[in-house]
Amino acid sequence: MTFDDKAGRLVDYLQIILLELKGNDKKNESVCQILSPQEIAALRVLCAEGALTMSRIAEGLALSLSGVTALVDKLVEKKLVRRERSAVDRRIVRVEATAEGKRLNRLAVEGQIHFAQGLLGALNAKEQNTFLALFKKISREVRAAKEVAAS
């Protein structure tokens, strides 16, 4: 099998997993009744990284600044995030998750962890460790490439 063939297979496998993961979010009714997939993604970024500027949220979600503004407006209206202006530079606005936003994020993450447990359950302990080590390595490369592209 050529390198291109392997890359094509990887894309196929990732598509299957990503579609199932997205479908898994929809099974969590308590979260889906309140949040859209984009809102779940925004909360995940904010809960993982803490208070962020609008531009950092846009970068983390690969959305335009105007798209993130509308998204954050909805989350503020739902009282799941709050905006705070910098005391030093009033032009800088940071967004952070509220306690309720963090609670809903935990519910969404629990569903995703349950999904990941199902994936890992198909592997023995040694395969799980190898799989995680390889994904960690790939994740580092993806992040490094993103940082290089941004600079």
Give a quick rundown of the structure.
The chain has 151 residues and is mainly alpha-helical. The chain has one domain (3-120): Winged helix-like DNA-binding domain superfamily/Winged helix DNA-binding domain (Arc Repressor Mutant, subunit A, Orthogonal Bundle), CATH 1.10.10.10. Helix content is 74%, strand content 8%.
Could you outline the blueprint of secondary structure elements for this entry?
Blueprint: H1 3-27, H2 29-32, H3 37-49, E1 52-53, H4 54-61, H5 65-77, E2 81-85, E3 93-97, H6 99-120, H7 125-150
Antiparallel strand pairs: 1-3, 2-3
Helix pairs in contact: 1-6, 3-6, 4-5
In words, what does this structure look like?
Helix content is 74%, strand content 8%. It has 151 residues and is mostly helical. The protein has one domain: Winged helix-like DNA-binding domain superfamily/Winged helix DNA-binding domain (Arc Repressor Mutant, subunit A, Orthogonal Bundle). The protein is globular and about 55 Å long.
